Amino acid sequence: MFAEGTIRLTNGNDTFGRVEIFLDNQWGTICDDGWEFIDAIVVCWQLGFKTANIATSGNFPNNAPGVIHFENLNSHGKEESILECRFRTNHDCSDFEAVDVGCAD
């Protein structure tokens, strides 16, 4: 079982892919509404990288888990986890709006 708030990159490679987060015992995505580069940096930090070099969305709509956990992620750049950022849990997003990130050391 995964810990609440665990994140992973899927459909890409070790450094680039769709961001998925484990909440309420299921994997889901983050909607791109409000998605900014500082949010991508926090995601990469949480994954153990030094920074982000890409913050985009919609590159991997196929095989998405079908659950979108939240939107309007609002990070300040000091968070160690995206769960420390502000976000909204109600949304009007679809799978092709899931965020992607590219991380770098």
Oligomeric state: single chain
If helices are DSSP runs of H or I spanning 4 or more residues, what is the number of helices?
1
Helical proportion?
Answer: under 10%
Total strands: 7
Distance between the termini: 28 Å
Could you name the ranges where pLDDT drops below 50 across 5 or more consecutive residues?
A: none
Can you summarize the main beta sheet? 7 strands, mixed
Overall, the morphology is globular
Work out the radius of gyration. Answer: 12 Å
| Class derived from helix and strand content | mainly beta
Question: Whole-number average pLDDT?
Answer: 90
Beta-strand content:
35-45%
Order of SSEs, N→C?
A: EEEHEEEE
InterPro entries: SRCR, SRCR-like_dom_sf
Pfam family, one: SRCR
Protein name: Neurotrypsin
Organism: Holothuria leucospilota (Black long sea cucumber)
Overview of the structural elements:
The protein is mainly β. 10% of the residues lie in helices and 38% in strands. The chain is built from one helix and seven strands; from the N terminus they run βββαββββ. It has one helix spanning 37-46; strands at residues 7-10, 16-23, 26-30, 51-57, 68-74, 86-88, 99-104. Strands 1, 2, 3, 4, 5, 6 and 7 form a seven-stranded mixed β-sheet that branches. It is globular, with a radius of gyration of 12 Å. Keywords: Disulfide bond, Signal. It comes from Holothuria leucospilota. This is Neurotrypsin. InterPro entries: SRCR, SRCR-like_dom_sf. Residues 7-104 form the SRCR domain.
Keywords:
105 residues, seven-stranded mixed β-sheet, mainly beta, 10% helix
